[in-house]
Amino acid sequence: MKVHEYQAKAMMARSGIPVPRGEVASTPEEACAATSRLGGRSVLKAQVYAGGRGKAGGIQTANSPEEAEALARGLLGTRLVTHQTGPEGVPVNKLLVEEPVSIAGQLYLGIVIDLASRLPVMMASAAGGMDIEEVARDQPDKIIKVHVDLATGFRAYQGRKLAYGVGLRQELVNPAAALMASLYRLFEASDCSLAEINPLAITAKGELLAVDAKLNFDDNAEFRHKDLVEMRDDEQEDPIEVRAKKSGIQNYVKVDGTIGCMVNGAGLAMAVMDLITLCGGRAANFLDIGTANNTDRVVNSFRIFMADPSVRAILVNIFGGMARTDIIASGIVEAHRQLDITVPVVVRLAGTNVQEGKRILRESGLKLIEAADFKDAAEKAVAAVQGGKVL
Amino acid sequence: MKVHEYQAKAMMARSGIPVPRGEVASTPEEACAATSRLGGRSVLKAQVYAGGRGKAGGIQTANSPEEAEALARGLLGTRLVTHQTGPEGVPVNKLLVEEPVSIAGQLYLGIVIDLASRLPVMMASAAGGMDIEEVARDQPDKIIKVHVDLATGFRAYQGRKLAYGVGLRQELVNPAAALMASLYRLFEASDCSLAEINPLAITAKGELLAVDAKLNFDDNAEFRHKDLVEMRDDEQEDPIEVRAKKSGIQNYVKVDGTIGCMVNGAGLAMAVMDLITLCGGRAANFLDIGTANNTDRVVNSFRIFMADPSVRAILVNIFGGMARTDIIASGIVEAHRQLDITVPVVVRLAGTNVQEGKRILRESGLKLIEAADFKDAAEKAVAAVQGGKVL
Amino acid sequence: MSILLDQKTRLLVQGITGGEGSFHAERCLRYGTKVVAGVTPGKGGSQVAGVPVFNTVEQAVAGAGTNASIIFVPAPFAADAILEAADAGLKLVICITEGIPIMDMVRVHRHLDRRTTTLIGPNCPGVISPGKALAGIMSGDIHLPGNVGLVSRSGTLTYESVAQLTKLGIGQTTCVGIGGDPLPGSTFVGILKLFEKDRDTRAVVLIGEIGGTMEQEAAEFIRSGMSKPVVAFVAGATAPPGRRMGHAGAIISGSSGRAEEKMEVLRQAGAFISQSPAGIGEAMKKVMDRLAQ
Amino acid sequence: MSILLDQKTRLLVQGITGGEGSFHAERCLRYGTKVVAGVTPGKGGSQVAGVPVFNTVEQAVAGAGTNASIIFVPAPFAADAILEAADAGLKLVICITEGIPIMDMVRVHRHLDRRTTTLIGPNCPGVISPGKALAGIMSGDIHLPGNVGLVSRSGTLTYESVAQLTKLGIGQTTCVGIGGDPLPGSTFVGILKLFEKDRDTRAVVLIGEIGGTMEQEAAEFIRSGMSKPVVAFVAGATAPPGRRMGHAGAIISGSSGRAEEKMEVLRQAGAFISQSPAGIGEAMKKVMDRLAQ
């Protein structure tokens, strides 16, 4: 999960990392008052779950409280479209109003889990303020890395290695190492999947300052971070995916095809999408219904499909292991009872309790397209879309 | 270094470990008032740096505030002699006044660094309230151990292993595991050399309670625990050893012979003591003067020797490496200038700057017994004691 | 022969008193696996399907002589369960649990550095050696004893693949689901090495996914250390980049994570690629027919 | 030959700009050691006795090709210095620093589990291969090149022993002070193994202390793996039990820590025991005379 920049900065500040003075504003008036308190000038930053704000007009500078109010009026309530959002953009409901900072230099600092070494890795680069993935691709030698051994924690010498490596001058080496140690402690203690300061600025006064901050968190660790879960801003997420999650479907990703797919297992769900493509069609989504031993999740999946105007056929492919096909079958029947299913539905059931599952579908009297295996299912779904109506 | 029980319990309480209600009293009146606040009955526990208080009369029960006051009057200001103190005992300046606890069962719980595995080890035993070293010797199978991997920390399963192992009933298993995790965190965070709860009581109400608590700390880590250093009660330590430490001599141990030994290096200091014994004498102390590149430490060593009535000769054996023998020699001269040295002094110098050192001694005109090597030095010191006066 | 699991396996089920634990313990028993003990803290002394339950893994080892474990413990406690099993000396630990925090797995891996435990999973369907023993959640009845090994990052896609093999009469020595997590206990290479050494395994099916570089490492081993033929499929060719597709491991980042690239690297290393997930059985049929000649 | 240290050693001095660091760097240089770099964070670019100073060990490795390090960094920062040297790939790290917190050393050891670095010390006098190189604080001039190896837990007692050997004309291949700390980087057994393999070492002096069980482990190795004669002394026969005698390792706890017991175990394993610390040279003389026959 993600949090807003202002929340990430608050967490960093509590960890001892210097951040610019600032306040959150939800109204133009608040932006105006905050700018006054900051001395009459401010930077207004749209609080959205997307990068690329600057180029998209989401960061603006106000030279007076009145200008801040006017700029805030133009930002709040709009939707910001960046290269990381879809064309629908993300809503701007809050602004971070910060003191303007005179920047003499910019660094990159970030922590992720390195899958190869299976340890946290801290990365620093003198190419601050840039997209780090671009730097990694084009100038990999500009990124310096240290791995953190959990048995020792992040060490001062590692901080010095990064600080000297990005060319910090001597007076800033120890402060930078201390800042890095703080960021690492925050990363580990909060189960971050990403902790990033980009840019980590060297101000004109010669101090380090986290001018932008990003924290992503491991969804699997939510159980021990209830405070973080409360920070989540669902309005920033795709509403269909949020609805899917709330109905118990953890893994739903919208893509741009026409066949709504309900599959158990992520690998199989991807394979079904691949098969549909091989058969000449396009899946409308990735949906792993998981073990799903209740009918609700099946009904909710169908609800999502029917709410998606691009879906012109539904493909159900369940190979029961932990999941029971009889419950899936009952869910399909229930979905047809509750919803107006206007597109062809192809169903392939195999595995646990499959006889019972097939019996339930048969006895329901529903017009379903039965498939023998998943290839057959993909072919029939593609044919159904091309045919355009229920067979 | 050590701290008093009341200090250890305060630290444990802050770590979430349940301890009895109690207050510290420095006067009989305070003991009386504390007993009133505890409901009229109390246990008075002498706060001394020594085990074996109970048998020595250092723990007493009061059935009324007035009785508490009378008992406190009998304890405060006295010296307590236990099997762990010398015959001179340790001063009782503070009492811990605690609520009496109904005890249904007693466990042992302790953490030290295990030198073999080079990891912290937590030990638990159903033989609570007993001297754990006796248990270790006589019934080693009654002690259950788990090693703590710093990469994972103390784990819940380890707590359960110890809790089930000492026979705790099911309701207490998870609380005990949580208590152990807290104790381990305290151990690691405070650089303890020993963290011990003995007994860890199971009260009549069925709760866990740290009825006695002991925390020792790694002297080498004092630099990062200034708060702990302030807790040290120097009055509890041997005054000569405290004085030695304050004068920069970290390693002084009084033993019961007649030859005061000043040696550089712990191994050599022990070897000199061994040599003296082989030559028929007895060292009065272990004293490692360390690198000691200043004369003060030498003077202070001589001051300690002359304050010790059992010292009848002084043996100086310095093999200079890091330490410079010329500075040692100057220190010997200075000691004779400042102090009234009434016993024979045998000096053996070798190593760094030895020519200069010998010259300083020669030119001082002092009556010193020069030795060619450390065996010669030991023999001459023993002979000097047996002769009884300066040659 | 087989790898990891056989008739000598004495299986412990951690979390046996939970819904999934008890359900699958019974299924494994019915398949013929020697399920000799269960562990649930606080339930020691009870029984599940006739299997004695202990409070700790150490007690289960002492009391029932277990030598392998399968874990159905909920995610918040699963890392602890893995560590407990390793600490008790078990050489094989299979963790079915999905959703373990990645930092917990970082800790587990750092600890396992100093142990000889083989961890399969987490977030995996487990292991089956058809006709011998099942320690997993797959249906035993879709399997057939035989000479093909299978290793997969996916659960249900494995069932599909096995169904294709069995339908064509191609039996399996052992099928191993290494799981879809970003930090799996065992990798393709580790399992391929075991299959390479296993006398009865004549060919191997490898089912990969987008994300990570495990398939590239497998390709390198297939090229340099594998004498037996490998049929491979990589799921996710049509997945949009940068999105997490269910499995935490299944996210494409950079070109190395793409399905096409992985299949190409595997092909160049000598693996037989099935372009379609429905063609895995047929591809292996050709390989086995050629081996039979 | 020699162990650990020779003419090919390119020594780095960590903490070279401090009082002790610069003093001993110069002494090592004067002895003929190739001291090629120093490290003090913030002093990079300067020089000490003509030796270039770097900000980090990694820079020193890159800039001066060091392959071993000696550490004079103050105790609060010494564990970090060890880790930095190991992380930079140095195969030999000698830590002179005394007074490192034991928990820091627990962390260091847990980290070194995954490295191939040999750590000598901390709280030790260092290593000398007479006539070849000195990486320590011992006086080079009491040493003599020859064929006896020496390993000791003590500093100055080592000098006494070496002086006895040299006085009797018995030269040394390498003298190793493993240090008096409770968690030393290297143990007697580790160093004995190196001496056993070293062609030029014909006999070994071992100087132990009360406390711990390192001498007992050494005895076991002497019995089972050592073909060369060992002369041993254990200091502390007259130390009172339960008191810490300077070295944190030198505390007797239980019977296994006593000097008499350690000497007896070593004797039974075949070591030649010198009852007196003044008799070590003579004992080795007898051994060497016998070897010469």
Could you give a quick summary of the protein structure above?
The complex is a heterotetramer, with two copies of chain A (391 residues) and two copies of chain C (293 residues). With 391 residues, chain A is an alpha+beta fold.
Q: What is the helix fraction of residues of chain C, given as a range?
A: 25-40%
Number of domains of chain A: 3
Task: State which percent range the strand residues of chain A make up.
Answer: 15-25%
Q: Provide the gyration radius of chain A in Å.
A: 26 Å
Superfamily (CATH H level) name of the largest domain in chain A? ATP-grasp fold, B domain
Q: What is the CATH class name of the largest domain in chain A?
A: Alpha Beta
Q: Please tally the helical runs of chain C, counting DSSP H or I stretches of 4 or more residues.
A: 9
End-to-end Cα distance of chain C, whole Å, is 23 Å
Q: Mind telling me which CATH architecture of the largest domain in chain A this is?
A: 2-Layer Sandwich
Give the overall shape of chain A, derived from the CA principal axes.
elongated
